[in-house]
Design goal:
Elements lengths: L2 H11 L6 E6 L3 E6 L7 H6 L5 E5 L2 E5 L4 H14 L4 H21 L2 H13 L3 H20 L6 H13 L1 H12 L4 H9 L10 E2 L2 E2 L6 H22 L2 H64 L6 H11 L4 H22 L4 H15 L4 H11 L1 H6 L4 H8 L4 E3 L13 E3 L3 H27 L20
Antiparallel strand pairs: 1-2, 2-4, 3-4, 5-6, 7-8
């Protein structure tokens, strides 16, 4: 089916246009909020051609379509919803109100809410991080090769602009997520990156611009939101336009300068030291463990909790050493998929899924393979959770590899690599790690990951995708 046909097929299975409240998407998933969950035909959604998995999360449904496809299906579905009459949505909203409240109360656990809010704060920033990271990689490559020396400063300035103000964007997003005025959250967080903080002394030390990074920005904006909500409750309406913004910026700003920046700076530095210590002392063992745990984290949606850690490492040290290690899990997944493709020579359905999902997996989007191949078959998911040991060992031997931005992995991470011996050696170490991941995933899955020879294998049924927090 083309994208219009896919959207048209999805709509009735979601309960019709009147049942769809909002339509959105991330890199691989179509995210639809419905008025009445009882009208959604989940089993038929999972069986629809092109759907790689379905996630139920309260009143929202996340339909895994894969990268590229989801960005084209989402606007088509929105268009179909927009042309429908809104009257039916109001009726369905009343019918489903009680059900939604019960579902929301059941799913509103502190852990799920925390991860969901982290995602809402940081995921919208990833495109800018990726774009600036690629530009920074190009600038570093030109500088090392001594090409176009006049262009390098311009590229460095473009790449550094967003990172120098990332605290402002994090503050804006944090305030928006927690119900404050976004621009006031950005204003409070902006004090962290202002050069004037260098003249402020706290606990006998001078502050440095950027100290505390994204953690400090989140804390400052969250505190600002608390103050703003308190002001809205007690300040008279006639004075609200002046007093509330004044106190919302002033009080959290002072707390940020005289406490939060110092504490957040110490925590950020500790995160960096912990990551370095783990790889310097754990080496191959640490790399194996981190790489092996990443796919289960992605499947459960828990990888969102790593975004602030990656961002903090990038802000503190210029790159995150954890992302190249975690990307090795995707390499094992690719090797496992290739082994399944070879072993199940007569299973046309599985081989078709692998052919369509493999290009995205090579670029670091592993969900299509997870939900379409590894998880349904069972064993390949376990054997794909290997890799990272080689990169961890190289780090222990003194060849550190990091990523200057978060978001992509696989082959898409090559332009973002940096290392203590220059980008060329970083590319060599990372590329060798991918090759090891492909090879180990293939061999382990070919030998142990597929039950029975190809002719006897039967296309597996897809299990339900577990909900994201």
């Amino acid at each position: 089916m083309n994208h219009q046909d896919t959207a048209a097929a999805l709509l009735p299975l979601l309960g019709g246009a009147g049942n769809v409240r909002t339509v959105g998407h991330c890199m691989t998933r179509l995210r639809v909020t419905v008025a009445d969950r009882a009208l959604v035909r989940g089993a038929e959604l999972r069986a629809l051609p092109g759907v790689l998995g379905v996630v139920e999360d309260g009143e929202s449904w996340q339909i895994v379509l894969g990268p590229g496809t989801v960005a084209r299906v989402a606007p088509e579905l929105e268009r179909l919803v927009d042309v429908a009459s809104p009257a039916s949505a109001d009726v369905l909203a009343e019918r489903g109100a009680a059900l939604r409240e019960r579902r929301r109360a059941r799913n509103a656990t502190p852990g799920k809410l925390f991860l969901r809010r982290l995602a809402q704060i940081f995921v919208p920033l990833i495109p800018a991080l990726v774009g600036c990271g690629v530009i920074a990689g190009a600038a570093g490559l030109l500088a090392n090769l001594r090409w176009l020396p006049a262009l390098v400063p311009a590229l460095s300035a473009i790449a550094s602009g967003f990172m120098s103000l990332i605290a402002v964007f994090v503050g804006y997003r944090t305030a928006k997520e927690f119900g404050g005025t976004p621009v006031l959250g950005g204003a409070v967080a902006a004090v962290i990156v202002h050069p004037g903080v260098a003249h402020v002394t706290v606990f006998g030390r001078q502050l440095a611009p950027g100290q505390g990074g994204v953690l400090g920005a989140m804390g400052a904006a969250l505190l600002g939101t608390v103050v703003e909500k308190a002001c809205r409750r007690v300040v008279p309406e006639a004075l609200d336009v002046l007093v509330t913004p004044f106190l919302t910026v002033l009080l959290p700003g002072l707390v940020t300068l005289y406490g939060l920046m110092f504490v957040a700076g110490e925590v950020s530095a500790a995160i960096g030291r912990c990551a370095e210590w783990l790889l310097a002392n754990g080496g191959a063992v640490a790399g194996f463990a981190l790489g092996g745990l990443f796919l289960p984290l992605v499947m459960l949606g828990l990888h969102q909790a790593l975004i602030p850690i990656h961002t903090t490492l990038i802000a503190e040290r210029g790159s995150t050493v954890l992302l190249p290690l975690l990307a090795m899990a995707g390499a094992g997944q690719v090797g496992a998929a290739l082994a399944v493709y070879v072993r199940l020579a007569r299973d046309v359905s599985v081989r078709r899924v692998i052919r369509s999902a493999l290009p995205a997996a090579l670029l670091g989007i592993g969900e299509p393979l997870i939900y379409g191949v590894s998880l349904p078959l069972g064993r390949p998911f376990a054997t794909a959770c290997v890799g990272g040991a080689f990169v961890g060992l190289c780090h222990q031997l003194g060849y550190s590899v990091g990523a200057t931005a978060i978001g992509p992995s696989g082959w898409a991470l090559f332009p973002l690599l940096a290392g203590n011996h220059g980008p060329v050696r970083a590319v060599v170490v990372y590329g060798a790690g991918l090759a090891v991941g492909y090879g180990v995933g293939f061999v382990a899955t070919y030998a142990f990951g597929v039950r029975g020879p190809g002719p006897e294998d039967v296309t597996p049924r897809r299990p339900p995708v577990p909900p994201l927090p």
